[in-house]
Write a structure and sequence with these properties.
114 residues, single chain, mainly alpha
Length: 114
């Protein structure tokens, strides 16, 4: 991979991830950007659930059985294919004995819910 200086010599410009996201998704605070960031967070939650489940050597069916949902629901949560109820997400993390933290940002204030 060429170094940044090599790219400048060839007349290529580099962009930050924020610059690319602003251009192709929208600036922070716009509805399209908010939706994108929300979906990204849900995707990360799904990946965290999948990783924790595998580390605990549980199948999706076993995890579903622990919280009273079908295997398909666990699959949908892990793959961000359906909106899951907040209560279900909390049950999943509880069943996995996983510590969760929530960070809520209000205008001009930060709340950290642990």
């Amino acid at each position: 991979m060429p170094k940044n200086n090599d790219m400048k010599k060839k007349g290529l410009k580099t962009y930050t991830l924020d610059e690319v996201t602003d251009k192709h998704i929208g600036k922070k605070g716009t509805p399209k950007r908010d939706q994108f960031e929300n979906e990204l967070r849900l995707d990360l939650i799904g990946k965290a659930i999948k990783q924790a489940r595998k580390e605990r050597k549980l199948t999706q069916a076993q995890l579903g059985g622990l919280i009273g949902v079908q295997k398909a629901q666990i699959s949908k949560i892990e793959n961000n294919l359906a909106d899951a109820r907040f209560e279900t997400i909390l049950k999943v993390f509880s069943a996995l004995n996983a510590k969760i933290n929530f960070n809520v940002e209000l205008e001009n204030q930060n709340l950290n819910l642990t």
